[in-house]
Design brief:
The chain is of the alpha/beta class and 166 residues long. The chain has a single domain, classed as 3-Layer(aba) Sandwich (Rossmann fold), CATH 3.40.50.360. The protein is built from seven helices and six strands, in the order βαβαβααβαββαα. Strands 1, 2, 3, 4, 5 and 6 form a six-stranded parallel β-sheet that branches. α5 links the parallel β4 and β5. It is globular and about 40 Å long. The mean pLDDT is 95.
Length: 166
């Protein structure tokens, strides 16, 4: 099973819009991927919400797609808190991950994806090497939360095809 994690709890984020785009593009390839948004999830402690999320979504998943915004040159603390308060061995160890960074700037969260890679490696997650930075995401998204830029779509499709085979 695939799970897409929108790596922020910010309501109405571009990150969630890109995560939904990834879900649609995986569905077009016949891959059923569930989407997890961190909005309204208390990750500050090992809460009932985290335990429920683990049981229903995270533990059964074999592959994770992380769509992660740039927050202060890294990735959001809410995502780090999810790792810190989850059952690491059951949820993360030995699984595979694909990383996509999003930002309104020009680097597409390259540094944040590097930081996230380090954390995931520590958790014994195998990270796919094709990490896609999506820059100026605010100008790429259309009013119906899609992307029409051919180059960006080709990069996403290549990344997804590689990850399916990974």
């Amino acid at each position: 099973m695939y799970t897409i994690l929108s790596g922020t709890n910010r309501p109405g984020s571009n990150t969630l819009k890109i995560a939904q785009l990834y879900q649609r593009r995986l569905a077009a390839r016949g891959v059923d991927a569930r989407l997890v948004s961190l909005e309204n999830l208390d990750v500050s402690t090992r809460s009932e919400g985290i335990r429920n999320l683990e049981t229903t979504m995270l533990i059964p998943s074999e592959k994770f797609v992380f769509v992660v915004p740039e927050y202060n040159g890294s990735f959001p603390g809410v995502l780090k808190s999810l790792f810190d308060n989850s059952d690491i061995d059951k949820v993360w160890r030995g699984k595979k991950a694909l990383l996509t960074g999003v930002s309104t700037g020009r680097a597409g969260n390259l540094r944040g994806m590097d930081h996230l890679t380090g954390v995931l490696h520590y958790l014994k997650v195998v990270v796919h090497p094709n990490k896609l930075p999506i820059s100026i995401v605010n100008t790429l998204l259309t009013t119906d939360n899609d992307i029409t830029d051919v180059g960006t779509l080709k990069a996403i499709d290549l990344q997804l095809d590689e990850f399916i085979a990974f």
